[in-house]
């Protein structure tokens, strides 16, 4: 008897699931399914994991702030990030990025649960007890009977793809008398059952709907993650270039202030010599003070942008980071500008990254929202067929066989075999809810078709708008490049004319203001042109990204 107890305890211990084991198993299963389906959807063969690296930049910055040490080489202060650095940092540190990835993982676990429903499942039950009974034995006196009994049952279940369910179980009863002859009796009981739907609920479409929808949900999550990655990359690039633009405005204001300060000193000397009216000296002073105020505002606005950019990347808001101004130089050079920004640029726009027919074809086949709209139409049509099936009558075939031995108080009877075959049916007299569900499903198909039409129109509009934005951005760039050349020439001429007494102080101040505006407008045009190319690729779902979040397109004057 003790042997059976030991076996039962061993089986119970083997079947225990610890929290640590559950985490390891679910992470392995979720990552594997997510990677497999992601490869099917996107062709990406990289390993998928939701575990965040321990040496990510946020942790290193926090350690540097709190303990003066990091998990890697010492970080410079401030930390200068290139655009690639910012993209990689965002992919590793952004909470939004992590949440989007975890949605894929959760959908993968849901799929595994539905897959498990079509696998053979096992269930075990154990039980035992002690019993004592006393009876009047007549002349022989009272009799006491004590016995210990125990039992176990193992059940396996398998759901088939066409709706049938198979169940088989094997039970064992053990009884040992603790009084009298102390005999031991074993009892075995086995049974098998099959249930097959013949009408309503039968067929692969109905039986596997939960699994099919779980697969679709994982695909939707993957497309959602890939769309997020592209949108996030453009968002980071826009934030980075906006910071470059803000930094350039600060530099331009500082240079403008220096020129105004020089003009003020020269005007003061002329005024002291009686060659310049006091009112013109005050005009110069007033413009200098206005520039000082603009510079303070620009510095504060830039710092606020840096804080917002750090939050976009998932970095501590009090971390000391800066953008690399050489990124702006590379961007301007790619568009044909010399370091002084005063050279002539081509009036002819370079060819866009995609011709309109190519872009339209790519959008209609590659846009994620359009692909999902087609999938959702298929889901709606499938739901309509399932709703139609629910209107049919119920008819099911069942069968079972039971083989075993009966025992009582340590004794047992002969083997016993039972068979049964059943045919159950239900007439479809009450189908009010099913009728409503069918109509709603039909409306869902119509709605999905309209959503698909809208998605196709949105794709065409995005292509046309994107190509127009690129052409418009290049025209603006050409205009602003020429405007800067004119502004530079105007400042130089006004200085010479003022020295010759042929220009007023107001002419010089207006020329300086025009130069400041032209510099800022040119940088804004350069950034706008670059972002218009990236936005078009994103809108076509054609912005190819590495696993680190970096895009693979070269930086050239085509995008």
**Biggest sheet architecture:** 6 strands, antiparallel
Helical segment tally?
Answer: 13
- Structural class based on helices, strands and sheet pairing: alpha+beta
Helix content: 55-70%
- Tell me the number of strands: 8
Instruction: Give the SSE string.
Output: HHHEHHEEEEHHHEHHHEEHH
Uncertain runs with pLDDT below 50, 5 residues or more? none
Basic shape: elongated
Mean pLDDT: 85
Strand content: 15-25%
Physical arrangement of strands within the biggest beta sheet: 2-3-4-5-7-8
Would you kindly provide a written description of the structure presented here, covering whatever features stand out?
This protein is of the alpha+beta class. The protein contains 13 helices and 8 strands. Helix 5 packs antiparallel against helix 7 (209-272), helix 7 runs antiparallel to helix 8 (278-313) and helix 11 runs antiparallel to helix 12.
Describe the secondary structure blueprint for this structure:
Elements: H1 2-14, H2 19-42, H3 57-66, E1 79-81, H4 83-93, H5 95-116, E2 121-135, E3 143-159, E4 165-177, E5 184-197, H6 204-207, H7 209-272, H8 278-313, E6 321-323, H9 326-334, H10 356-366, H11 368-389, E7 394-408, E8 411-426, H12 432-499, H13 505-539
Parallel strand pairs: 1-6
Antiparallel strand pairs: 2-3, 3-4, 4-5, 5-7, 7-8
């Amino acid at each position: 008897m003790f042997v059976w107890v030991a076996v039962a305890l061993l089986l119970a211990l083997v079947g225990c699931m610890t929290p640590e084991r559950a985490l390891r198993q679910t992470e392995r299963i979720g990552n594997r399914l997510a990677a497999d389906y992601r490869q099917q959807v996107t062709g990406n063969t990289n390993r998928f994991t939701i575990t965040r690296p321990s040496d990510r930049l946020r942790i290193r910055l926090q350690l540097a702030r709190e303990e003066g040490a990091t998990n890697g080489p010492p970080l410079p202060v401030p930390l200068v990030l290139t655009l690639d650095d910012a993209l990689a940092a965002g992919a590793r540190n952004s909470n939004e990025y992590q949440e989007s990835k975890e949605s894929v993982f959760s959908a993968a676990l849901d799929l595994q649960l539905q897959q498990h429903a079509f696998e053979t499942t096992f269930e075990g039950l154990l039980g035992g007890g002690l019993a004592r009974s006393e009876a009047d034995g007549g002349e022989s006196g009272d009799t006491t009977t004590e016995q210990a009994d125990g039992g176990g049952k193992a059940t396996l279940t398998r759901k088939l793809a066409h709706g049938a369910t198979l169940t088989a179980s094997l039970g064992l009863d053990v009884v040992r008398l603790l009084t009298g002859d102390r005999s031991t009796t074993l009892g075995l009981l086995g049974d098998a059952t099959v249930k097959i739907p013949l009408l309503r609920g039968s067929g692969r479409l109905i039986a596997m709907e939960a699994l099919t929808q779980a697969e679709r949900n994982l695909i939707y999550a993957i497309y959602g993650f890939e769309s997020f990655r592209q949108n996030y990359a453009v968002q980071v690039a826009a934030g980075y270039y906006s910071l470059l633009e803000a930094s350039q405005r600060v530099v331009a204001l500082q240079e403008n202030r220096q020129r105004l300060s020089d003009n003020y000193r020269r005007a003061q000397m002329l005024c002291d010599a009686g060659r310049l009216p006091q009112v013109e000296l005050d005009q110069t002073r007033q413009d200098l003070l206005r520039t000082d105020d603009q510079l303070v505002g620009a510095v504060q606005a830039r710092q606020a942008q840096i804080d917002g950019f750090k939050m976009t990347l998932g970095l501590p808001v009090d971390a000391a980071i800066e953008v690399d101004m050489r990124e702006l130089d590379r961007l301007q050079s790619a568009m044909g500008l010399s370091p002084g920004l005063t050279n002539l640029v081509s009036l002819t726009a370079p060819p866009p990254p995609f011709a309109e027919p190519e872009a339209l074809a790519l959008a209609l086949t590659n846009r994620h929202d359009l692909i999902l709209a087609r999938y959702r139409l298929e889901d709606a049509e499938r739901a309509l067929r399932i709703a139609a099936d629910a209107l049919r009558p119920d008819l099911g075939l069942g069968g079972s066989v039971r083989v075993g031995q009966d025992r009582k108080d340590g004794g047992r009877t002969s083997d016993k075999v039972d068979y049964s075959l059943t045919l159950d049916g239900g007439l479809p007299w009450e189908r009010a809810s099913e009728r409503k569900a069918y109509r709603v499903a039909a409306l869902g198909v119509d709605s999905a078709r309209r959503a698909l039409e809208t998605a196709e129109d949105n794709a065409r509009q995005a292509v046309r708008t994107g190509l127009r934005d690129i052409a418009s951005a290049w025209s603006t760039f050409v205009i602003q490049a020429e405007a800067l050349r004119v502004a530079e020439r105007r400042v130089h001429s006004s200085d010479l004319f003022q020295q010759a007494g042929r220009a007023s102080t107001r002419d010089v101040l207006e020329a300086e203001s025009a130069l400041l505006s032209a510099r800022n407008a040119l940088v804004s045009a350069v950034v706008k042109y670059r972002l218009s190319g990236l936005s078009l690729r994103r809108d076509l779902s054609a912005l190819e990204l590495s696993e680190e979040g970096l895009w693979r397109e070269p930086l050239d004057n085509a995008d």
